Amino acid sequence: MESQVRGGTRWKRFAVVMVPSVAATACIGVALAQGALAASFSVSGQSFKVSADELQGTGFEQYGAIDSGYTMDGKKTGHPVAVSAFKHAEITNLCQSVVTPDVPIFGNVSLILRAGGAGHDKVQADNIYIDVADLNADATFNNIDIGVAAKDADKGPGLKGGSEQTNPYGFAQQADSATLKDVKQTAWATTAGTFKLSGLHMSLSTGVKECY
After folding, report:
1. What DSSP state is assigned to residue 25?
2. How close are the terminal C-alpha atoms of the chain, in Å?
3. Which sign does the torsion angle of CA 145, 149, 153, 156 carry?
4. Less Cβ around it within 10 Å: N or C end of the chain?
5. How far is CA 72 from CA 44, 79, 97, 148, in A?
6. How many domains does the chain divide into?
7. 66 part of a folded domain
8. Does 28 fall in a domain?
9. pTM exceeds cut of 0.85
């Protein structure tokens, strides 16, 4: 029998394509939870939300940049961001969420990733960069330097580079360590040299469901 067609999609064929993708995603999730892979979270053309009860980081730096990316229809674009970087970070009750709108048949589809919650070790990250568009938190910085040139910031992991455009002589700040509590932020990308997610749980659901 020919596979059922709805809205131009053959759903049996869709399932054949999606099942290996879901399996691969699960394997990547297990590897991340074991700290076996470098990690990169970015959604082309979309920002995503991140929340945490607490982030404790050492070797902090922050500077301005433009993230290069693409819109949902494939047009090249850029996003101004404040890059927050840590040599090492420990995160309690991490949540990351992204909503993909107007998926045929389903409408809005939400992806939520959680780790480091109750009963689990904190999320551990080394050389982590978070490209932030909006941030709310209660923050404490130790031995902070404000107004250094981005190229001269030497307490953190250094400038990220890649698809990011940064003025090396632009404004930056740095600190020996930082503690952020009740974190709520909108980001365009997160990258880390290693990212260990204890108690990782990833879920997909219809509708708009976000970390906050």
Report:
1. H
2. 45
3. positive
4. N
5. 7, 14, 17, 36
6. 1
7. yes
8. no
9. no
